[in-house]
Specification:
It is built from ten helices and no strands. α4 packs antiparallel against α5, α5 packs across α10 and α6 packs antiparallel against α7.
Length: 286
Amino acid sequence: MSPRTNPGTTAPARPQPQARAIRLGPRSAAALVLVGAVGVVAFGWPFLAPPGSGLSAHAQDAPWLFAGLLVLLMAVVAATISESGLGPKAVAMLGVLAATGAALRPIGAGTAGIEPMFFLMVLSGRVLGPGFGFTLGSLTMFASALLTGGVGPWLPFQMLAMGWFTMGAGLLPGPDRLRGRGELLLLALYGFLAAFAYGTLMNLAGWPFMGALASGIAFDPHAAVPANLARFVTYCLATSLGWDLGRAVCTVVLTVALGPALLRALRRATRRAVFETAVTFDPPTR
């Protein structure tokens, strides 16, 4: 039997479907897949290139090559996403959130992994979807680099990694149904794991630069993949484990403490913005 409600009672309100500031069409999705594939090669080439190959022999030059390629590809992605419906309301929200994230990044200056911008990226990507999340993560990292003077060959890698970080939150299950404590735990778990993934990716971007600075853990272009993998794991444990753990814990704490209020604010803002409704102007009256 199906449950019935009494005449004097009202049915519990169901969560409304979330609006998406950017609807990913086939072209946008294809562009994201393309930049993702090139990004995987750009980050993981030390384990993909055969030992002693020409690419491995130019370990000092490869990050510059991939950085330039990533800039071009991300420009293509930005243009494609903008063609898919990045309206004035979405641009305004994108600018506000990117500016907020860029302002949060210098707090703590990365000391012991205290980087509060990551929790904002997780919650924003969750509410506004993967397309908006990728754009927001990349733009926030670019703006924060300009703010802190952190512009260099590592910036395209940071932009791509943060774009993936924020986009992943938008791909989590149950965006229209899961609410309350269950959603908060899901976001906290994602933020914890993704914080380590971000740190690992950035280690991959900088590891080939080391050269002979630390022969025991540096990338060896003539070594086999298992040997280089062991060197990379040692490098991560020795150099960034503390920062990655601090970033993960900071993200979890801020998500649990501020997540409910921020999620409500973001969802209320998206409902009021009504992204899927086109902006129209009435003709002038005579």
